[in-house]
Each structure stands twice: as C-alpha cells, then as structure tokens.
Amino acid sequence: TSNKGITQGKLYSTKTIIKNQIFSIIFASSMGRNYTLIPSMIGSLSPGLIWSFDNQYELFTFYENHSLFVLNE
Fold first, then answer.
1. What does the pLDDT read at residue 73?
2. Checking CA distances to 63, which of 2, 36, 48, 50 falls within 20 to 30 Å?
3. CB-CB contact of 26 with 37 (8 Å)
C-alpha cells in the first residue's frame, strides 16, 4: 500500500467464490502506520463479516460505513 508515493506497508487480499458466495481474505504486514480499509478498496461487496486471527471468538461487520481499522503493531 502507498499514499502519495510513500510506502505504508503490505496489504494482501484474495477472493474466492464457492456456490455463489464470495469469500475474501485480507492480510496486513509491516504496516508503517494505522490503516483504514473499506470493502470497495479490495473489490469486495458490502456488507461482510470480519473474523480476526487474533481473536477467533469475535466477529465484526464490515461495510462502507463501518471500516476495518488495521493497527501498525
């Protein structure tokens, strides 16, 4: 990812379609700063669910007005 030509970190996304259902995976690495992500930035449809690798028991709604906030930790 970059902002005005300055590298901000690495952000990867994949998309798979199984039985007309779209599944996307987002992976952030080496983020130089905090980052906000909305579905349209990765070609995803809204709304969606976020399942965090860090906490398998939490689900979050992901849509244009409720973005994913990626920390640079």
1. 65
2. 2
3. yes
Q: Considering the entire predicted model, what is its pTM?
A: 0.55
Q: Is 50 exposed, middle or buried (0-12, 13-18, 19+ CB in 10 A)?
A: middle
Block residue for tokens 């640079």? 72
36: exposed, middle or buried (Cβ count in 10 Å: 0-12, 13-18, 19+)? exposed
Alpha carbon distance 15, 43 (integer Å): 9
- Residue 1 clears pLDDT 70, i.e. is over it: no
| Containing structural domain, residue 45 | 2-70
Cβ–Cβ under 8 Å, residues 1 and 35: yes
33: amino acid identity, one letter: R
Domain count, the chain: 1
d(CA 36, CA 19): 30
